[in-house]
Amino acid sequence: MANKVKDMISKTLSQPSRMIIIEEEEILHGPSPIEQPQVAGVASVDVKKLKDASLCTVEAVAYSPPKGLLLIKGISDAKVDKILEAATKLVPLGFTSASQLHAQRQEIIQVTSGSRELDKVLEGGIETGSIAELYGGFRSGKTQLCHTLYVTCQLPLDQGGGEGKEMCIVAENGHSSKSNLKVVWWFGDNQLVASSDYLYLAC
Length: 203
Fold this sequence. Notes:
With 203 residues, this protein is mostly helical. Helix content is 41%, strand content 7%. The chain has helices spanning 2-14, 44-52, 58-62, 66-70, 77-90, 98-106, 116-121, 142-152, 177-187, and strands at 110-111, 126-127, 166-170, 198-202. The protein has a two-stranded antiparallel sheet with strand order 1-2. The chain has a two-stranded parallel ribbon with strand order 3-4. β3 (166-170), α9 (177-187) and β4 (198-202) form a beta-alpha-beta unit. α8 (142-152) crosses α9. The protein is elongated, with a radius of gyration of 25 Å. The chain starts with a helix and ends with a strand.
């Protein structure tokens, strides 16, 4: 019986006409551009008005109160209802089951802080998809930890990294690329910090 099954499988796979190719759909993560509601019937002129009001994502529109949208010049009551209806179709609102929340938590990547003891306290490292606030006294290691995260977020997943890129926004003009190079030397890889993977903004 087993041999017959093997013969049937081999014959099926040997016939190209019976082979089914399944293409995986591209999964996009993160906020959705505001242009998407156009599919649901929102005019491009109204989309531009939303963007001019700093509502550049579907999520931002979906979570906006109707009164706030009415303050936008050229957006009437009827348009508000239409815009919110289109946005809520693309953004899931309401209650989430515990199983769905658990599945979402499974997709979170934890980036190592470079310290095993600190990773233990954080139960794995710095979580992606959330905001982490660092506070402490002068020379307590806040900036050094940030320099370390600039590097560790580029590491492979199996090394505690996020295989991603980083953006550094400095408000006190205290950034030093030498600190990054020291961290790279510590990890023993001088190819981690690439100019295309490191975005820096001083303000």
